[in-house]
Amino acid sequence: MSTSIQTGTAASTIERRILGLRCEVWWAPADAAYIACSPEFPTILHSDPSSALAAMNGLENDIRDALAAVPAHASPGELR
Q: Given a cut of 50, is residue 2 above it in pLDDT?
């Protein structure tokens, strides 16, 4: 399999995982920002003072980056 096909497959897998994520967002007065988290990735949080949607988008990007850094053969629990 060529590198470009492997990369495309990895990206597709990551996007499928992102689509299935649950996300919670709340306003944190002490931080004056919205905080987003996902129960599937409890160690990853993202805050944004502008909006809840921006916090969710940032969280998705952070999770996407974390998934891309994990080897393809790793088990799903290795990020936790």
A: no
